[in-house]
Amino acid sequence: MKLTQDAPTDFLQAFNRLASTKGTLIDDTKHESYFETLGPLPIQAVVEAARQLQREDGPYLPAAGTWFRVADDLAAAMLTKAATHAALLPRRVDEEEADEIRVARDQFVRQYEKLVGRTLPDTHRWKQEEIRVPSYACLTCLDTGWVEVAGTVADFRQAGEPVQRLSRCTCFATNATLEARRQHSTPTVTTRSRSR
């Protein structure tokens, strides 16, 4: 999903349409602050949230936090829907692809054995493990939770060239793979009784 911070034109159109339905005068400062607030959300969710907010009664432009909350809820629903339709797990590997992976794995094992100066037993998992192709719950971040995004205008002014930053992926809080990793890596505290 494309983030709002990477789609300034789409955001500006949605912002102007929403502001025009509320009869609110806007300026560059207000536009920039809303853009910054909504930047980490998917643009599709931000545009749809603007459409929903247009239909609400009231003469004033909703607060940026209100727009963010509506768009965030929509983004979560979109991610859930995408995850159920993606059908990425498990992925069957056809025999030709499995053979190519097996050849590459065998080549790696031979190079490894040459490098360390010893031969792995035939029962070693690198030689016997079933061929599986990695699949991801999120194809945007490949289950890392982070994506590269364009830097801000201030970054550009300071550096004098385009700057790339890391930002949390929209799946960060909802990705089942990331959640499993977090659960697995949570340290456990044990207490020991002192003997006297």
Describe this structure as you would to a colleague:
The protein is mostly helical. The chain folds into three domains: 4-86; 95-128; 146-185, no CATH class. It contains eight helices and two strands. It has a two-stranded antiparallel sheet with strand order 1-2. The N and C termini lie far apart (60 Å).
Write a short abstract of this structure.
The protein has 8 helices and 2 strands, in the order H-H-H-H-H-H-E-H-E-H.
**Total of domains:** 3
DSSP summary: helix tally: 8
- Class from helix and strand fractions: mainly alpha
Helix percentage: 40-55%
Measured between the Cα atoms of the first and last residue, the distance is: 60 Å
Number of strands: 2
Order of helices and strands: HHHHHHEHEH
Name the overall outline.
elongated
- Overall radius of gyration: 25 Å
Q: Roughly what fraction of the amino acids lie in strands?
A: 5-15%
The largest β sheet comes out as: 2 strands, antiparallel
Kindly report the average pLDDT value: 81
